[in-house]
Amino acid sequence: MKSTVFFTEKDILETIKTRNKGGKKMRRKGKQILAAATAAALLLSGCGGGAGESKEGTSEQTAASGDKMTDVGTPRKDTLIVDMLSGTQTDPDNFNPYMTGCVAMDCGLHQLLYPCLWEADTMNGEQTCDLAADFPEAMDDTNTKYRFHLREGITWSDGVEFTAEDVEFTSDILSSTEEFSWGSWYKSFVKSMKAVDKYTVEMELVEPNVKPQQKLGVIVFGNNFKVLPKHIWEKEDPATFKYTDPLSLGPYTLSKRDAQGNWFLYEKREDWDKSDVGVIDGEPKPQYVLFKYFGSEEKRVMAAVNNEIDILQDISPESWDILKEKNPNAKCWTEEFPYAIPDDPCERGISFNCSNEYYSNRDVRWALTLSMDIKQVSMATFGGKLKFSPLAVPPTTALTDVYQKPMAEWLKTYAFEDGYKPFNENTAKEMVELLKTEGVENLPTTDEEITDIFGIGWWKYDTDKAAELLQKNGFTQKDGQWMTPEGEPWEIIILAPADFEIESMRLAFAVADAWSKFGVKAEVKQQDSSTFWTSYATGNYDTGAYWPFCGLIPDLTENIQTWHEKYILPNGENAAGNKERYANEELSAAIDKLQTLEPDDPEVNKTVEEMLKIFVDEMPAIPMFGTAKFVPVVETYWTGFQDSENPFEGPWWWWSQFRFYTTKIEAAK
User: Which of 38, 238, 315, 607 has a CA-to-CA distance to 101 between 20 and 30 Å?
Assistant: First the structure.
């Protein structure tokens, strides 16, 4: 008989927290960890009953009773409860979408209130029409003048009709309000938008572009062009107006909010049929949608165990083990391993502020890259369940076939000026062998399977070459510690999310551990959502665990255009693009060229490949992994969520497409 291992609540909480800080993997103790998770879940749920039981009783009893109320005063059976990815909001009264410090869009704002002109079908990689009824049509052969029409029948939530005058007004204040950081980007692209009649807009661009809908519509997460109601905003100073009671063009309105910024409650409009979703897709099913931040990862998971939440954001593999064992109504993207969806269109890595001392030096950036054992970083981040990416394009299934695999041969031949070849084509195979020693089963065996799961390879772990690059630039070592050219201990602060975006949070600690072993004093500074993103935009960082490389469709124009050098601002100023503050004329010229190419032009892929080569050679940010998303749902109160068997969309709860999911979700019976 095998001995029984007993764990306390403290044991499991410390296990999760330690792993979230990049702690070493508990080797060869998988069964004990799972036992700990199950035992701790029983303790944390405050009961000793069987699976599925909680403080509320069994899941079936809770759903059947129908009279339970949420802590914000709504019937639980009518309320869809969604985890807030961006966590606590510092100013819950600020809904001005163009003001620094406003409530994060993924707290329900762009999902429910602020539709865009054009949306995206992310599973098919195509744009669709939303507030706009059609795509821009060129008015002449200059590719600078376009006309598009608005969808009729949509009103603001106060009953006022949505018209072209709202679009023109929004364009005007973006162009004239210096305090709006995104306005500087907007003015560099759009010269004017004019309302020709109630439903027709004519747009003139600053320079030729054959696909303006990609700049002003959704291609992945959302879009910054949020149309504002003229009849409200024309009476206010846009630079200071907090828009505390925002109107909606979506199917819900903001009903209540927490004064501390921990939750936002939305209620279905009585006139939902006059919203974008109502006109396009029909009636949303939940009467209320509550976006709520429950706190640390273990608290969020236990809320799901207790059926207090329906949709979770971004948890770790260990937390999923706890949840699926404790609540039988919980499910992830797949029913079996790997559970998580692997095709998130943003990859994880480390950004540099390339305008700062040391990090403006390409050799220093490459030295920090070669000083990391990527396999150990993967283990410390997500137990090795990550796909390597050496390129500035996410290794999604589609984009791997378009860019990663075709560029593998070039990566093998790529060399520094001295002839050194940094690429390791065997990284994926080495990862498989490492996981075997950890007791992981059902690993891929063929070269094709290994590549599909773990990627085409990554950079060598070569501390000797890294040291050579640093010494070449005046760095020295003293008692195992790297010293700056000025003779001071070299210290690096890595900014990281605090209790949100778990993968990036853990990645930061794993990278800090790797750099510390190399002899650099590296520390992680965790920040709440607002501070984290403000630091990035204002250049108030040296390095950070951000995700600057995203992509959903092969035409990466809009994902990569923010790297244009025209968006660089001095540190301290709020940049709308190029937050790495990296200047490269060749890269900017290639971005300009992309703007002139139709999406299906063969030159698009060729141009993107040349840009990806620049990113490799210069390494202004270190792409590391494709993002694996553990974003489970609990089907105690609501069903019909998308999954691998019903993939009407990916589980992108924090993207703007969310409001269209609500028409497909059904109350549990």
Answer: 315
pLDDT tens digit sequence for 339-375: 888 788 899 999 999 999 999 999 999 999 999 999 9
Which amino acid makes up residue 471? Q
List residues bridging with 140 in a β-sheet.
none
Structure tokens at 426: 């065997």
Q: HSE-up of 577 (CA within 13 Å, CB side)?
A: 21
658-660-666 Cα angle (round to 5): 95
- Secondary structure element (H or E) that encloses residue 615, with its range: helix 602-618
Note whether 118 and 280 are within 8 A (CB).
Answer: no
Q: What is the pLDDT of residue 37?
A: 40
Residue 604 CA to chain centroid, in angstroms?
A: 25
Contact 632, 332 (CB under 8 A): yes
Residues 424, 426, 431, 436, Cα dihedral to 10°? -150
Which residues are CB-neighbours of 457 under 8 A, at least 6 positions away? 388, 390, 408, 411, 423, 424, 425, 426, 427, 428
Summarised one tens digit per residue, pLDDT across range 626-653 is: 988 899 999 999 999 999 999 999 899 9
The number of helices, as runs of H, and strands, as runs of E, in the chain is 23, 25
Helix (H, G, I), strand (E, B) or coil at 646: strand
- Alpha-carbon gap, residue 228 to 92, rounded angstroms: 19
* Helical segments of 103-224, H only: 164-176, 181-189, 212-216
The backbone torsions φ and ψ at residue 481, rounded to the nearest 5 degrees and listed phi first, read: -105, 130
What end-to-end distance do the CA atoms of the chain give, in Å? 43
Q: Around Cβ 623, how many Cβ atoms within 10 Å? A: 26
Cα(420)–Cα(414) distance, integer angstroms: 8
Beta bridge partners of 519: none
Report the alpha-carbon distance of residue 254 to residue 269 in Å, rounded.
Answer: 10
**What is the rounded CA–CA span in Å between residue 282 and residue 285?**
9
Tens of pLDDT, residue by residue over 482-511, are 999 999 999 999 999 997 888 999 999 999
CA 134 to chain centre: 28
